[in-house]
Amino acid sequence: MAVDAQQLSKPPRRTRFQWSWLLIALVVILVGLSYAWHWDDRGLLWLREQSASAEQRAASVWLPDYKVDIDGKSMVGLEKDEASDLSYDPVSKTLYSVMGKNAFLAELSLTGDVLRKIPLVGWSNPEGVMVLGNGLIAIVDERQHLMTMVTVTPDTKTLDIKDFPKYDLGPSVDQNKAFEGVTWDARNQQILLGEERPPALFSWKSDGSAILKGDKRKLVNDNLIMRNLSALYADQKTGHLLVLSAESHLLLELDEKGNKVSFMALVTGLNGLAHTIPRAEGVTMDENRTIYMVSEPNLFYSFKKK
Questions:
Q1: Might you report a single GO cellular component term (predicted)?
Q2: pLDDT tens, 47-89?
Q3: Residues 6+ apart with CB under 8 A from 116
Q4: What is the pLDDT of residues 183-203, one digit of tens each?
Q5: Which of 73, 149, 248, 269 is the most buried (most CB within 10 A)?
Q6: CA 207, 210, 211: angle at the middle one, nearest 5?
Q7: Does the pLDDT value for residue 170 go beyond 50?
């Protein structure tokens, strides 16, 4: 009996059925990953960046124009710690970072050298730090759900939580993924707080003193295209907010209305990075527009505009 050559070339119906299901499963996985990692949102934002005018770029921080200047410098003396957040002090021209694993406040130079370490007595897991000025620094403890207003001078050797005013940040959706980000927005006289997961923003009225006004208020924002929120920085020149995500390897710029403006992917080959930033936990900026970051466990980065 003659066999049709065309029939011989066709794969068995069962094999075709299996490949169809594998293809469907692959598409579902890719769609799920795209949704979880916000690849579609990033793609749309990238397209919008390409059409932004010179005026729009000048009126923003504009993260695509930044290139790494110090790329993953190891901060000597912090090898066994976990750098968690970063804040710039315009008076001393230094940076402050908190260590979440071993509780202490570290003062750093603008090149990532450790200038001093101040033990934090009574803190469980300090994850956020913010310089308000005149020696006043806010420290957020994620595990205790507390924000403490401490005073630091050049002679400060240690800080005890019982000596300073504290504010209860209240419960979180996930008690183990609570408040991490904190920044001082002088333009709008408020402290901005960031909840790690699900990513959320809150504000608390403040005149920059140790005394807060009213209660914290949740901000409606559906534009946090990230898996978690690690840190915040309020830029007073533009009024824009920088939001950092360790898990998404992303730094996102939002305008005063909460709309996405620009972003920086913290991965190998982009913005001059030789390697992906492993776990970016802190971000801040100085008056020269240099952006500083720290990553667990003890890596230091700075970015300058091209």
A1: plasma membrane
A2: 888 888 999 999 999 999 999 999 999 999 999 899 999 999 9
A3: 106, 107
A4: 999 999 999 999 998 999 999
A5: 248
A6: 70
A7: yes
- Write the DSSP string, 99-134: ETTTTEEEEE-TTS-EEEEEEEET-S-EEEEEEEET
Q: Which tokens sit at 144?
A: 């205790």
CB 201 within 8 A of CB 216: no
Count of beta carbons in the 10 Å neighbourhood of residue 65: 16
pLDDT at 18 (0 to 100) = 61
Helix (H, G, I), strand (E, B) or coil at 138: strand
What distance separates the 2 farthest-apart alpha carbons in the chain?
Answer: 100
Tell me the C-alpha distance between 78 and 32, whole Å.
38
Question: Using an 8 Å Cβ cutoff, are 169 and 191 in contact?
Answer: no
Quick one: which of 293, 298, 181, 291 has its CA closest to 228?
Answer: 181
Output 122 or 13, whichever has higher pLDDT: 122
What is the C-alpha separation between 38 and 224, in angstroms, rounded? 9
For the chain, which domains are there? 14-51 (no CATH), 53-305 (2.120.10.30)
- Using CB atoms within 10 Å of the CB of residue 122, give its burial: 0 to 12 exposed, 13 to 18 middle, 19+ buried: middle
Q: Tokens 């007595």 sit at which residue? A: 121
180 Cβ contact list (under 8 Å, min separation 6): 84, 85, 127, 128, 140, 142, 194, 195, 196, 229, 230, 231, 281
Question: Is the bond leading into 198 cis (omega within 30 degrees of zero)?
Answer: yes
Query: 145: closest CA among 193, 122, 190, 178?
Result: 178
Using DSSP bridges, classify how beta strands 114-121 and 159-160 pair: parallel, antiparallel or unpaired: parallel
